[in-house]
Amino acid sequence: MNEHRDGDRGSGDQQPPPICRILARPYFKSSQIVNVTYVWRNLSVKRFILLLFVLSLLSIFYYTKHLNSSLPGFLLRKRTYLKPSIQCSHLNRRPQMHILEHNHRSSARLRIDPKVLVLVETMYSRLGREIAELLVHNRIKYRSDVVTKSLPVLTNLDKGKFGVIVFENFNKYLHMDKWNRELLDKYCREYGVGIVGFIPRTDQRIIQPLRGFPLLARTRQQLKDATLNAVSPVLRLTRAGETVWGPLPGDDWCTLESNHSSYEPLEWARNNSYSEETNEVQALLTTVMQDRGDYDGIQRIIFGSGLRFWLHRLLFLDSLSYLSHGQLSINLDRLILIDVDDIFVGEKGTRLRPDDVLALLETQDRLKKMVPGFKFNLGYSGKYFHHGTEEENLGDDLILEHVKNFTWFTHMWNHQQPHLYHNQTLLETDMYQNKKFAKDYGIPTDCGYSIAPHHSGVYPVHEPLYSAWKRVWGIKVTSTEEYPHLRPARLRRGFVHRGIMVLPRQTCGLFTHTIFIERYPGGRVKLDESIQGGELFQSIVYNPINVFMSHMSNYGNDRLALYTFESVMKFLQCWTNLRLSSAPPLQLAQKYFQMFPEEIDPVWGNPCDDPRHLKIWTRKSCDQLPRFLVIGPQKTGTTALYSFLSMHPNISSNLPSPETFEEIQFFNGKNYYKGLEWYMDFFPVVNSTSTQFLFEKSATYFDGESVPKRAHALLPSAKLITILISPAKRAYSWYQHIRSHGDSIALNYTFQEVITANDTSPKHLRDLRNRCLNPGKYAQHLERWLSFYTPQQLHIIDGDQLRTNPVHVMDQLQKFLKISPAFDYSSHLKYDPKKKFFCLLLNGTSVKCLGKSKGRLYKSMDEKSYKFLQRYYLSHNTALVKLLKRLGSQPVPQWLKDDLSDTSPT
To answer: Which of 635, 719, 729, 777 is catalytic?
Structure first.
């Protein structure tokens, strides 16, 4: 035993004893007092280290057993809390109210529309796309045109169509031909319109004057340390006083110089090529220049670089506001809600401990000073309460001890996705369990707000979820990132369905699995980029209502959420004049739809076009939607076409509606609010490999203002079929049709009285006139459809030919639809001399004609009414001729030529 205890390192045949023998060997008598010196003398270094390792391992196992935690979760647990490092002079001052000199509103009578004209080099240029995306994100109306030899029309009567002109390449403005330059400058002076220009990047470092201006440009420079001119009247959103330290993005900056009083720097920077070791004072170089208009009467703001630098995005928005005299100013109020999802859901070892809960409360107190009214909004699934370690369960208890310090919203009891519940009773049972849990633990149940796990059921809509929410919880508000799609975030919008307001939710960059900074994609550098001028910062700048979703695990572990939100709020205060505040979800939703009432109506998309939507969609059927639509208009022969199409063995129509018969009338009326699943129930399930074509016919679609947008959102690849006849004859036929159906107003007025009604006529008569005449403005309605669909998706049928030669029309239609093999209509259609139109020939013998209401005989239209309608539709028919020639799909029909001539009706 002594040789083992002495640890003779020279004996090569000596092997360390097994660990069990080391632990069992009686080194000490029970009566001895053992000290470190004795151990050191009687154990070899190797054995001593081995003993320490074993004791440490036993301690770990004992500690983990005491905590009732699994070893891997415990070993992975790290406590590397990040501290916000954002510092600026404004953070040490009391919050200031928005000062008046930042208000660009003019008291003068402005004659400009709040719209931006963006002149780009190509429709695919990078900076042009960035400008357009920034305008879309801030809901600023704009028109984008490629710079050509001719300018777009700038005025409408005595009003300017654009409040600001933006040149993606300022050189295009400087080198415009004399005619267009004088025309544009005259417009800007007369209507008080300003110009924003971006100096393009170059491959050479040159010094050159800007043509026609007392300005000198230095190109291809590397810069650092950007600062703003604090006294510039342009600044409104952007707060001056700080410096963006370090190199600025890119090596192709242009700086501007001028000694004319009209020019004032808006942003400065320093040359990055100077050595830091020298004590030489570096000159401030102007990177953004304001032209006050003293030189030639036109105000301009010229950027020496594009929008890659985050500060330029703010300055661009301020430039639009300033140059449009406040017409294009964005609201500076920002409402913020931070949802903490699944406050009790998480694996052992990753959940909140008591110290995490205290940190949550402390950070909330600091955020309240920056965001008045702020509280974290906690969501809960009660089934997972007390599912952590002993310490984490204490964290759960501490959260409930402070239940009044937070706001709360309900999740699902077992965190299951709602779309997986096909039985509404089971869905409600789950909700009632969570409600019981809330009542048992004193959690408020009347907030009227809820979130669905993984966005399931909110969009694409799962109807049982909305019904159960209202029935069990009285839910009035929810939110999602998925409408209309997750990406791009700038397009996220809200909608209202079944009386529940759906707010758009923004992305903060944290997800369930991003709990340690070293595992964050890109690490702390990438997270700080998002906070300091990047995606998270810009989300709050661009969106007046911000709903963020983070997860419970983001508040434990490395506490990334606490760091992220506190840092971005500080950065916002340093660099913007935004007024931050918070409010309960119901108030946020009411405010949102007051600001954007046009978003109340939903626009249903096809879940099959988005893999994310397909995963959280109930239906999972991608072959139950029409491939083409017969869009009308009314009284042009759409019912006859419907019957002809229904004969085709490879074409299937929708099932009949008990209210509107063969027409579903989904896209243009109240049926649209019944949702996508209601619409799809009218169509049979077709195998994806089948050659069967589904279609729908609703004649009222043609002139519906919202129909093209709605139809394209759901059926972007669908083909469109419309039938056109003389708009005068169509109006007269429609009038006779509603009279035959007992319309009381039409029965009380002659056709002449209806079509000649004016603004002084009774409202019911004016409404009847509009319903009668508006569908005949064919070019206007077709242009609306063509703003969503391509000309290749549109097929126009001459209604007179459909009546006199339907076989030819149907053959052409089959070619358009690319249906093969072609159906022989010549053996299935037969002319009825009594009805005076073609009827269906069934089984080769029996004839089936349309109902009694079709082919009805009535007195011909009087010549006076026809002449009136000729004049009324003259401009519309002329526009139709131009449209047909532009499309080049078919010759101008004879009825159109007749309507444009002086011939009388036949």
So the answer is: 635
